[in-house]
Amino acid sequence: MHIAEGFLPPAHAVAWGVASAPFVVHGVRSLTREVREHPESTLLLGASGAFAFVLSALKIPSVTGSCSHPTGTGLGAILFRPPVMAVLGTITLLFQALLLAHGGLTTLGANVFSMAIVGPWAGYGIYRLLRRYDVSLMVAVFFAAFVADLSTYCVTSVQLALAFPDPGSGFLGALGKFGSIFAVTQIPLAVSEGLLTVLVMRLLVQSSKGELTRLGVFLTGRKTAAAAQTPSARTDAEEEANR
């Protein structure tokens, strides 16, 4: 859903940049604290960023001035929370703009807002909601990645509709047109991203169970308090995640 370089009017580009800046600044503080307090998480942080970079680089032409693609932000949001993903997503978008001509510098703020801010928060929100009601880890992971992807495309549709309202039906008409065109490719991509994220999480459960436990990935609403107090409850949560 990267909006291409120079496609947004200057006022819109600046406004989205201003709206994104506080989230990114907060994310830098969160990321710095995570690395300082838990340097062992650096490898997993890098993997989360690389996952977002690779998936979001797989673009399919869609709406004029934009494209459809997976986002890869749901995984990082689950592991390290949305503020950290705002930074990783911004770095991803910046490198893609500079190295792949995917997106752009003038539209960086808009792309960060949709993919690195709204997407991770929406995905993490549905993940925490499902885990609160003891939905299994992998089902919650699927819907987190699915919602993070779809919410990004919804915000991009809003951004384009605000910049280019329909001459006859205005903002709502343009939003319907942009959204319907995106949906043709984006809904199947969101399903595919959800399934791929589940596969990656399964690998992480097998290879990095201790780190995932520290990050609270295995905790559910029923087990959160107990897991914080007893090792046996944490073990039960991990065993449930493996099922």
UniProtKB/TrEMBL annotation:
Judging by the UniProt lineage, the source's domain of life is Bacteria
State what protein this is by name.
Cobalt transport protein CbiM
| Annotated membrane topology | Multi-pass membrane protein
Q: Which GO terms describe its biological process?
A: cobalamin biosynthetic process
Q: Which GO terms describe its cellular component?
A: ATP-binding cassette (ABC) transporter complex
The question of whether Membrane is a record keyword is answered with yes
Q: Which residues form the signal peptide?
A: none
Q: Where are the transmembrane segments?
A: 41-58, 79-102, 108-127, 139-161, 181-205
Record's PANTHER family? COBALT TRANSPORT PROTEIN CBIM, PTHR43627
Q: Name one GO molecular function term.
A: cobalt ion transmembrane transporter activity
- Known partners and oligomeric status: Forms an energy-coupling factor (ECF) transporter complex composed of an ATP-binding protein (A component, CbiO), a transmembrane protein (T component, CbiQ) and 2 possible substrate-capture proteins (S components, CbiM and CbiN) of unknown stoichimetry.
